Amino acid sequence: MGVDKATVEFEGRPLIVHALTILRDAGLPVSIVGARSDLANLAPVVDDLGSLRGPLGGICGALQMTSVPWAAFIPVDLPLL
Asked: Following DSSP, what letter does each residue of the chain receive, concatenated?
């Protein structure tokens, strides 16, 4: 695609906002995984253990930062989830 998916707009809002809304509407606390300090105003940002590890690095990084028994992870490019 060649652009940052998190900030691509869909129906007038960035994709990241759609993802956060889905989780918040489900009553879940939210965090953003990745080296994205520019999104810290939307939710807490968790380090993704390096971008070379891909999505699995993000999941592992997030699991290291929490003690909850369950976690849900959704990508930003599924705004109709």
From this structure: --S-GGG-EETTEEHHHHHHHHHHHTT----EESS-GGGTTTS-EE--S-GGGHHHHHHHHHHHT---S------TT-TT-
Cα→Cα distances 48→13, 27, 64, 67, 81, Å: 24, 24, 10, 17, 23
Instruction: Count how many Cα atoms sit within 13 Å of the Cα of residue 71 in the half-sphere of its side chain.
Output: 17
State both tokens at 63. 């699991």
Average pLDDT score over residue span 5-14: 93
Contact 30, 23 (CB under 8 A): yes
pTM score, whole prediction: 0.83
